[in-house]
Amino acid sequence: MKVLNLDELEDANFKIDKEAFKPKTLTCSKCKIKMKKAEIETNLAGGINIELSGFECPKCKKRYLGLEEARKLDRALIISKIMMNEFKMERSLSFDGDNFTFRIPKEFTHNVKKRKIEVMPLGAKQFCASIQ
Ligand SMILES: [Zn+2]
Question: Which of 10, 60, 69, 96 stands the most exposed, by the fewest C-beta atoms within 10 Å?
């Protein structure tokens, strides 16, 4: 009977995941040469600009992103889609000397029981909020 060594298995999986997640080097699949590290600035809809650390092929100029950076791009794309969405309404903003407050209509929420909200700043006048 073959005994599966879980420790070895997990260790091997971790190494592969780690490399794919944040690769140190990449080779262009077309030119077969080593790609250079590059800061890739992407303009998304809704006035969002994001900077990602990826790789660029010095020959064909093709760009690649590691998994971690690709996830950042995915998140930014979701935010930009939300910001482009026509489904929005205007709320009045109050200021108590320290904080701005506004009311969220209950029609905008679904099954909200907790009273905690996470706010992620996107710029001086933009942010993304999600109820925890
Ligand atoms: Zn190339």
Answer: 96
Which letter does DSSP use for residue 65 in this model?
A: E
Contact between 103 and 129 (Cβ < 8 Å): no
Q: How many Å lie between the centroid of ligand 1 and the Cα of residue 117?
A: 45
Task: Tell me the pTM.
Answer: 0.47
Side-chain half-sphere exposure of 34, counting CA atoms within 13 A: 5
Three-state DSSP class for residue 123: strand
pLDDT tens digits for 75-107? 888 777 777 765 567 888 899 999 888 887 777
Rounded distance from Cα 27 to ligand 1 centre (Å): 8
Distance 69 CA to ligand 1 centre (A): 20
Residue 109 amino acid letter: T
